[in-house]
Amino acid sequence: MIHPDTELKFISNEIGYGVVATKFIPAGTITWVLDRLDREFTPLELQQMDPIYQNILDTYTFRNNKGNYILCWDNGRYVNHSFNSNCLTTAYDFEIAIRDIQPGEQLTDDYGYLNIPLPFRAVDEGTRRKIVYPDDLRKYYKVWDKKIEKVFGHITKRQQALRPLLPEALWDRIEGIVAGKEEMESILTNFYNGESV
Fold it and tell me: In this protein, which residues make up the domain named SET (predicted)?
């Protein structure tokens, strides 16, 4: 589920629609949680679908570390790519804001950690990276881990609208990580290596 202080908005002809903050979202805020309404499809299920459904899933899903396709049921499926994203996924089936997000600003992900099947050239943002590759997660996980670690301690200090969606055991684990009692798992645990599980 996407954070409630967001809305779907037309961005441009090139990009299409995107998810925009309607209120200030501070760094360390959980911006998305994999919830019980999100759908998971195996590669076999996808192959058995009509092409019209395959195209929809190809556009609006990401792959988890098992290689299954995840379709967000809400506006979360419209979060656009940025090489300088303001949200990052974690090893715990939620994403957090890695910097403050202002009202009217798009929430963005780097599609490099979403296990895309094929490379694609993204909209030029003036960054060194121009193409998203299927193995970007293996290349950049250390950089992304540092960005997550920098704000992870804020999770328990922020008002978390999506907190009710997190299992109690996961919240306890988050508190343990924030308190220094256990290590944060790397974003690399999300990597799908292309093998069937």
Answer: 4-112
Whole-model pTM? 0.95
Q: Residue 133, CB half-sphere, CA atoms under 13 Å: how many?
A: 8
Beta strands in the chain (DSSP E): 6-12, 16-21, 30-33, 39-41, 61-63, 69-71, 80-81, 87-89, 94-97, 108-109, 120-121, 131-132
Q: Which two tokens stand for residue 48?
A: 């058995």
Q: How many Å apart are CA 197 and CA 194, to the nearest integer?
A: 9
Q: Which of the 8 DSSP states describes residue 122? A: P
Query: Which one-letter amino acid corresponds to residue 44?
Result: L
Residue type for position 47: Q
Query: How do 94-97 and 87-89 pair as beta strands?
Result: antiparallel
Domains, in order of start, for the chain: 6-38+73-190 (2.170.270)
Residues 6+ apart with CB under 8 A from 177: 152, 183, 184
Instruction: Phi first, then psi: give them for residue 20, nearest 5 degrees.
Output: -120, 140
